[in-house]
Amino acid sequence: MTALQTAVVLIGPMGAGKTSVGKRVAKSLGVRFIDTDRVVAREHGPIPTLFETLGEPGFRALERDAVRDAVAQPVVVSLGGGAVLDPATRALLRELPVVLLTVTPEAVESRISGSDRPLLHDDGLAAWKAIAAERAPLYADLADLTLDTSHRPLSHVVADIVTWVGTDHA
């Protein structure tokens, strides 16, 4: 077990497996796991409702606060796919070890079908592709380690992150 000195942050597009991987990495490292989407929903209500009532900028402000609070401790943190759109959030992430999880459109299709994710409401996979392409440069710029979750067992992705963290990246 590695003693974390700082938060380890997982970023990536919707459906890449950030929450599933993050929970397992945290368990392996013996630390807490925080999903900032869940924090926002628990404290402020369902994310689709927040998007409707506050708009995306209002939601991003709540998300930014949740990220700031989460990364202030040595935990594993999973961010919502769009958290990187906020400049203040990106500035926080530059000081931390960041893992980018990627996934192909083919692999993500079954993961996002039937989703209540507000940004996918109308166009599903086509919307996912457009959003992922738009955010890809931000993800790449912030990532210290990039792993694809499309076809690898989650246990392998988790092991890679735990090994990486153990080499003094966190």
From TrEMBL:
Enzyme class: transferase
Localization (cell): Cytoplasm
Superkingdom per UniProt: Bacteria
Record-listed substrate binding positions: 37, 60, 81, 135
UniProt-listed Enzyme Commission number(s): 2.7.1.71
Pathway(s) annotated for this protein in UniProt: Metabolic intermediate biosynthesis; chorismate biosynthesis; chorismate from D-erythrose 4-phosphate and phosphoenolpyruvate: step 5/7
Keywords carried by this UniProt record: Amino-acid biosynthesis, Aromatic amino acid biosynthesis, ATP-binding, Cytoplasm, Kinase, Magnesium, Metal-binding, Nucleotide-binding, Transferase
Pfam family, one: SKI
Family: Belongs to the shikimate kinase family.
Cited function: Catalyzes the specific phosphorylation of the 3-hydroxyl group of shikimic acid using ATP as a cosubstrate.
Protein name: Shikimate kinase
Species of origin: Frondihabitans peucedani
Upper classification of the organism: Bacteria, Bacillati, Actinomycetota, Actinomycetes, Micrococcales
